[in-house]
Amino acid sequence: MTATSRTPLTQAAVRDDVIELAIGQPEPSLLPTFDLAASSASALEKYGADALGYGAEYGPWPLLEWLSAHLGAIDTRSPAAGELLITAGISTALDLIATTFTRHGDVVLVEVPTYHLALGILRDHGVELVGVETDADGLRVDAVEAAIDTARAAGKRVSLLYTIPTFGNPTGRTLPVERRAALARVATANDCVIVEDDVYRELWFSAPPPSSIGVVDPTAPVLRMGSFSKSLAPGLRLGWISGPSALVGRIIDGGVLASGGGLNPIIALAVAEYAEAGKYASNVARLRDVFRSRSAALAGAIREALPDATLAEPEGGYFVWLRLPGGLSAASLLPAADAAGVTYQPGSRFDASDTIDPSWLRLSFARYGEEALVEGARRLGQVVGEASD
User: Which helix (H) or strand (E) is 239 found in, with range?
Assistant: First the structure.
């Protein structure tokens, strides 16, 4: 195989002459390459051949113990034994949950807008996706109840509600604690599992977010998914599911873990070594500082380049949610933006119900430094100005 015929090493192609604000991935310089290499070597030296065998179904105990204590520190409650399962990232976690808790033809509720690639994972299971309305504070509880009532009146089973309540993708919104408690009550009353995607929790800018839904009400049917993809490195493919032991146990009893054992054990042990050495906490603190500055730089540049646009500056996470002025369609404008050297994700890609105003779009500030972000906003403003003339 020649160099030119090799398949790419990474998922997203980044062009030198384009500021790719569509990409929700961290800048490579932010990834702790050498520290993770050292932690991997340390794990192999410490655990030997056991690190390379089929792992325990729940995951290796060094990471389970550290992660349980860490979740208690950042979210007020440590998962007990049987309430925490190590996964190969959130995508695999969502697939495992859908496999375990849905049947073909079930209704799965998703907020509008929501993470667009999660929609594909859920659709793979033959479910009907029903979009639920949100507002400036996130998912509306009354809309969830109405969607459940409508589905049941049609003789359909509502098995899951997928939500990103903390620094959501794409909006950056955070659900207030009162709504979290109300959602937990609705899920309990209707035998519906809440799938809480909590990947951005630690990337807050000014203050920690409210407790996760499953911590607000530990008895509710909530499976919370977390990941090291945003707080450490996406290529690790390492995450977790936490929730009531009865629900987590059903996943454990599935065929995937029975066949292959624990998911990603060697990487889990390497991350445990990294975290126990105190490097994880300092890395997250560094990322908060970087993303706080980048978010402010991008938001400020957008306000200057597009003074008539609508945006709410996020309080954490990776993204700015922006509505173009003048009723412009983000999807229709994208080819012109790409030609001008800037990209974004049109809001329509995050919509399971075809109800989003087509003027919305998502920008990521994770991949680029402040100078490039300001230039990307300038290029976008120029494209919008030309389209508005």
Answer: strand 239-242
Strand partners, 194: 161, 222
- Cα separation, 353 vs 373, in Å, equals 31
> Mind listing the pLDDT tens digit for each residue in 324-354?
999 999 999 999 999 999 999 999 999 999 8
Helix or strand or coil: residue 103?
coil
Q: What fold does the segment set 34-278 form as a domain?
A: Aspartate Aminotransferase; domain 2 (3.40.640)
- Give the residue from 123, 109, 22, 69 showing the smallest Cα distance to 280: 69
pLDDT, tens only, 269-308: 999 999 999 999 999 999 999 999 999 999 999 999 999 9
H or E segment to which residue 280 belongs = helix 279-305
Q: Tell me the C-alpha distance between 293 and 48, whole Å.
A: 42
pLDDT grade, residue 4 (50/70/90)? low
Burial class from Cβ neighbours inside 10 Å (0-12, 13-18, 19+) for residue 234 reads middle
Q: Cβ of 9: how many Cβ atoms within 10 Å?
A: 6
Helix or strand (DSSP H, E) at 290: helix 279-305
Query: What is this structure's pTM?
Result: 0.95
Structure tokens at 296: 């402010």
Of 66, 106, 93, nearest in space to 274 by CA? 66
Give the phi and the psi of residue 222 in degrees, each rounded to 5: -120, 125
What is the per-residue DSSP string for 193-205? Answer: EEEEE-TTTT-BS
Under CATH, domain 13-31+281-388 is a member of which superfamily? Answer: Aspartate Aminotransferase, domain 1 (3.90.1150.10)
Phi, psi torsion values for 205, nearest 5 degrees: -100, -40
